[in-house]
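In keeping with the milestone schedule agreed at the kick-off meeting, the structural modelling team has produced records for the first pair of proteins. Each record is given below as a sequence line and a structure-token line. The laboratory manager (R.T.) confirmed that both were archived under the project's standard naming scheme.
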Amino acid sequence: MTARAFSPEVKASLLFTHEVLGESKAPWWLYGSAGRALLDVPSIIVRDIDILLSSEDALRLSQRTGWRNDADGGTDRFRSEHFIRQAPYGIDIEFMAGMQVQKHGHWSDFSFQTSRVVDFEGRAFRVPDLSEYLNMLDVSIGRRTQNVSR
């Protein structure tokens, strides 16, 4: 699925995401399958929308919307201070902030360092460089995902 062939549910979810993040003070990133699809990586199936934003913006989002922070301590490799999930159009939108990864027994803060701004339906989405995203999967989280062509 390319950026030009999103299902109506994914398209509506992306536009909704952009709208609710419109008051963010800090940069935020779209990553995961939706981010890769916007980068035109072939054969991507978008199953959810992953957003990395600042802790301050996540708190403001939660306060403004009444959405609950469901952060649960994460896994042995990955955790986040904020985890807010919504699915207004049947596609999970996962807002994460205060992300940390464990490497060699030590937890460290994680944020994307690269970004490409991609236009979708007249809205600008910040997406990490594909190589940085793949490095996060390999080194930080310890897994690769579907269809991750470089």
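The second protein of the pair:
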Amino acid sequence: MSKIQITSEKISNESNISISYKVQGIGYPTLLMHGLGANNRQILSTFSATNARIWSPDLPGHGHSDNFQNAYCFAKFKEIMIAFLDSLQIEKVILGGISMGSGIAINMAESLSDRVAGLIICRPAWLDKQRPDNLQIISDIGNWLQNKTLEQAKFELSRNLQFQDLLKTNPNCAASIEASINDRFSNQTHSVLSQMIEGRAFEDLENLNHLNMPTFITANENDPIHPVSIAKKISMNIRNSQFHILPSRYLEPKKHQRELTNKLNNFLGSNNF
């Protein structure tokens, strides 16, 4: 595994992959990773009132970090993030993230169980199967961006039946999906969207019962990209887990954020983090 050297708020490994990151808060060392198509600002805003010392990287292909030269997958993200922890000399850590980031955290925990003090799993979208149905529209967006102009990709999205329905019934969710097709990827690869959908967060759901660290898991209703059923299945297979269904972040965003912060800080306090 490549060794990564720290330089201020950027790290680079021997493969010349540079990772940009931010640090905020006071408390137990915690690595939180953002979702597909987002960047560390998603983590910094969502967990701004969390009682923890949070390291939040831009994952490769996102934000100000470099792209991979080869295919994007959970295993490669895991390798880079383990090297990230090693470079920071953090031996014991809480791992977690949102959506894709939570999948990377679980993947890392399976390899680093002796170093992982706890898990924070928010709105997971992957299990142990490739090409999950809930992410098909994101995969389509990735393919359109790779093979069409930006305007053509936007046109294809406008014709998508699921997107048309969400515009009427859940406009905030539709806006979140549409953000994947905006210019946040103008200087980054589009392949990360479709390639990550081809992967699985971990090899076998039942193997998660070997994880015994305290685990905080959340889901919310009215979120077709992050179904409650996925979070529930993960919770059922991690023995020492707390599972919370929060108010919809699309329909009740302030209430969602308030309950997330309160429940997460209670989890951290009750486990002496």
